Amino acid sequence: MLLAERCESERLRQIIKELQRHRFGRRAETLPEDQMLLGLEDVEQVAAYGETAQDVSAPEGREVQAGRRRVNRGALPAHLPRIEVVVDIEDKTCPCCQGELHRIGEDRSERLDLVPAQFRILVTRRPKYACRACEDGVMQAPAPARLIEGGLPTEATVAQVLVSKYADHLPLYRQAQIYARQGIELDRSTLADWVGQAAFHLRPLHERLLGKLRRRPKLFADETTMPVLDPGRGRTKTGQLWAYAADDQPWGGADPPGVAYVYAPDRKADRPIAHLAGFKGILQVDGYAGYGKLAERGDVQLAFCWSHMRRNFYELAAPGPAPIAGEALKHIAEFYAIEKDIRGRSAEERCLVRQQKSRPLAEAFEQWLRAKLALISQKGKLADAIRYALSRWEGLTRFIDDGHIELDNNTVERSIRPITLNRKNAFAGSDGGAEHWAIIASLVETCKLNDVDPLAYLTDALTRIVNGHPNNEIDHLLP
């Protein structure tokens, strides 16, 4: 009885520590890069302020400051237009002999200049013609196709609204405020209408992108919550945005990376089954049990995520001394050290190294986990963490015999991060709006994965679509 109470007390203490860390501590094991950069920005600002004050007070002044700025300040891209300004002397007469000075060279420097974004109005004129000798008809060139028939924007303007909302995390009302500062009064509902019409035209690209991903032999899958307005209750409901990604770069694959999001109002296991209909191969996922039904059909093998498994032990080790959890982290670190060395090699090489180095580590780690599980209370959080690992061991170790599989699911988690940033600034107004979010975000994030400018891509794609791009050449429009 006393032993049971002690075990329950220890379990409750662990839960309290976990809640305290969740409420007051960091949300991730490492400080997110964006937050870290925010802190570094302030440090660099203070340093620059001090350097400037020192340089201004120094006798050399500007020369000292200019010398420092020449050190590792980056390079300006060659494709940008150059506007040359010649700063010349007024009098080209020698002050000694009064002879004419001749040019012996020049100093050249480049600075990055910015012209603020400007709105302009494209005026389309279509002259009408008629024959003086005939009374039949008037000749006139047909009006060019428009994305928004009878509307104000060009395709480039609509693309800018899409990129600002889904890539730069600017809700439509903030964009309306930006436009208003330049005298362009656009209601948020007008911008929303543009987004909706663009989403309609881009839907075939989203479907095609998801279809091409389903043909790949290896995919990552994950899901995240999506707040959606529920007018009937006067608040938001929680939908789900499912993400399916492919990236063969770690093993030198030739296929381009891509990610497709699909909105669903719930997290039922039937969702990934429907989304991945026809997919056959390896699906790398977290520990969500719903993916198990997909694997039961026999065409899909699940590879589980070591990062998720590691997180369970980290949460136990982070609050204070936890010898077993800390030892588990050391075991896991050995696998990541091997993966770091073989990243970028061919799938065959990765498989060979893993069989030689990772397999003995995995066998030893499994035995260690089972031994420790037998020694500790079965009701504690540590036992839960060990059982989580052992119950998924086949999927966790599947990477050893397949060089195409990664150790974790971080590829798709990185693709979900921009969604979470958008989610902090806005929510979907309806299930339909959440579907539009999935369509456009899929194309924008796939652009990023392939180093394609989303604004240039969407402008080009929308222009081609409204001008009748053939459906049998839809692959040419994918990012």
From TrEMBL:
What single Pfam family name could you report for this chain, choosing any that match?
A: DDE_Tnp_IS66_C
The Transposase IS66 zinc-finger binding domain covers: 91-135
What domain of life? Bacteria
The record places domain Transposase IS66 central at 151-435
Residue ranges occupied by any Transposase IS66 C-terminal domain in the UniProt entry: 442-479
Q: What protein does this entry describe?
A: IS66 family transposase
Q: For the Transposase TnpC homeodomain domain, which residue ranges apply?
A: 11-85
